[in-house]
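Dear support,

We are seeing what looks like truncated structure output for some complexes. This example has two components. We would appreciate it if you could run it in full and send us the complete C-alpha cell output so we can diff it against ours.
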Amino acid sequence: MSHSHSDRDDVVTRFAPSPSGDLHVGGARTALFCWAFARGRRGRFVLRIEDTDRKRSSDAAALGFQKALRWMGIDWDEGPMPDGSICGDHGPYMQSQRLAIYESHMERLLEADLAYHAFDTSEELDAKRTAARAEKKAYRYDRAGLAIPREERFSRAAAGESHVVRFRTPDAPITITDEVLGEATLPQGEVDDFVIRKADGFPTYHFAVVVDDALMNVSHVLRAQEHFNNTAKHIVLQAALGFEQPVYGHLSLIFNPDGSKMSKRDKDKAIRAAVKAASLETPPEGTITREAFDSWIGDKKSQLDHDALILMAEALDVTLPEINVADFERSGYLPEVLCNFLSLNGWSPGNDLEKFDNAFLAEHFDLTRVQKTPARFDRDKLLAFNLDAIQAMPEALFRERVRAHGMRFHPDFMSALTTEQFDLLADASRERSKTFDDLFKSNGWLLLADEALTWPISKPVRKAMLKGEVPGRILLEQASELLQGVEVFEGESLESTLTAWAEVHCEGNLGKIAQPLRIAVTGGPVSPPIFDTLAMLGKERCLARIKGCLAVMQDVANSA
RNA sequence: GGCCCCUUCGUCUAGUCAGGUCCAGGACACCAGGUUUUCAUCCUGGUAACAGGGGUUCGAAUCCCCUAGGGGUCACCA
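Here is the complete output from our reference environment:
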C-alpha cells in the first residue's frame, strides 16, 4: 500500500463517528475543527462511518449525523451524502463495507507473526481482569495465546474455533507526538497485545481506523482526547503495516457546567430529578406505561427513548438539557452561532476576538492555539451570542428564518396565523428573542379562540387590574370604548390614539392602561409591545377579549 | 490503583513557547445605577483569577522542582 507523494502532500482530515445515537456537541466540535483545518489549507475533508459495532450502529443514526453536519454548514469532500450518493475515490466509507480490505491486511500481519489467533474465553479474561483490579494493578493481557504453538493456532482457527486476533505489540516504549499535547512516552508493557479482530470477524476500532486513515490518505487526525492513549496502539500498528504516521492532535473534552461529563444520560437525569422532586410513583398520565416507568426507575443507568423523554418532560414541565446538535436546532439556535460558540470552547483566535463565522475559523484555525484543558459548556453565553446574532439580523431575514423554524417545529402555530399576522409577530419579537423558539413558546395567546382565553389571577395581574386609586379594569372599560372608535387598527394609529388618551386619563402614564390591555387580550402580563399585540389580534378579537376579561375582573372584584 | 496529560476571574479565555509593557485584558454570568408600556433588550459602572510551597533571576502568570487538585485511559465500544 504505497501512496504517491503528491497524494500525501495534501492535507486530509476526517471525521469518523460511530453511528449510534445523535451527534452531540463534543463530536460536533471535533467535526468543525477537522473541517476548518482542511478548509483552511485547501485540503480534503472526509466523512467516514465507523460502524464496526454491529449491535450499536444504525443507518438512521448515520443519516442523522450527516444532517446535523449539514445544518452546521459543514460539508465534506468524501463520504456518504445525505441524498444517498457517495463521493470520493477511497470508498467505501462505511467500515462495515470494508471487511475484505481489513482482511487482506490482517492476513499480512498473521503471516508475518505480527499478530496471532487467541482462544481465551471472555470468562477467563474477565477473571484475570477482576484479579488485576483487586491487586490495584492495570490489567494487561498476559499473552496466554502465544503459548500455543503457531501451527496449532492456525489449524484451530481454520477449524472454526471461536477466536480473536491480537496484535503482537513490540516490547519497547512508545512515543506519541501530538500537536496539542506535545510528546509523551508510554513505558514498555503499557500497551498490551490488544485485539484487532473480534470473534465475529469484524476488525476492532484500532485496526480499522489505522487501515482506513492510511488508505484514505488522512494526513491529520484530530479527535477527542479520550483517544490519546489509543494512539500508541495506532502507532505500532502503522509501523507493522508499513503505513505512514499521520499528524495527531487530541482535543480536550466538553463538560457540563457542573464539571460532569456531558452525556446523553443527562436528559434522563433531569427527568429523574423532577420525578423525585414530585415524589412520583407512577408515570404521569399519557406518557409511558407503568412497566416501562418501573424498570426505568429501577435502573438508574437505563435511558428512555427520544419520544418518551419528550412526553415525560412535557408532563413534568422540565426543560431537557440540549446535548445533541439536533437539540440545539429544535431549541432555535442559529447554526452559525452554535459553531462560533463551540469553537470558542477549546480554541480562540486571540486578540479578544469572539464573534466570527466558519469562514474565519477555517482561515485562522490552527493546532497551536488549541486548549489542553477540558471546557465547561456555558449555555448562558451561547444564549447571549444567539441573542446578539438575532438582533443583528435584518428584519426580513429574521422573518424568513423564524418562519422556517416554525414550519419545521411548530406547524400548528404557523397554520393558525395569516402571513400578515406572523410578520407582525416576527417583527415585534426579533429584538427580544434569544432563540427562534422563544417566539413560539411565549405567544400561545395568539392561537387561542377568544372564548378559550382565561385570566389567571397572579400578583402582577392583581396589581394592574384591581389595585390603585383607579383600578386598571375601570380604565380598561373606558379604553375599550376608545378602541371601538379606532378606524385603522394598526400599530401607529393605535399608538397615537392611546398615547393621547393616556395623556388625559392616566396622567400621561401609558403603563397604566397598557398593562390592563395586555392582560385582557393575552391573558397574562407578558407580550410584545402593546400596540403590536393589539394590531396582531385585530379590533374584533381585542374587543371580544376585553369584554370577557372585564366580566371576570368584575367577579373577582365583587368577591373580594 | 498503574500509566499519560493538565492547572489564569463563577465560566470560556488572552497573556506562557522567545521572563520586565500584566498590582493580569476581553466575553458570558453576577452586583449596583440608568432607559423602557410588560417581559426582554439597551446604556453606565463594579466585584472577581495567575492552585499551594520551594527555587533560578535585578525581575516570574511566564523557567525548574515538590505537593495538592482535575482530566484521560486500563473492553472482543468507538
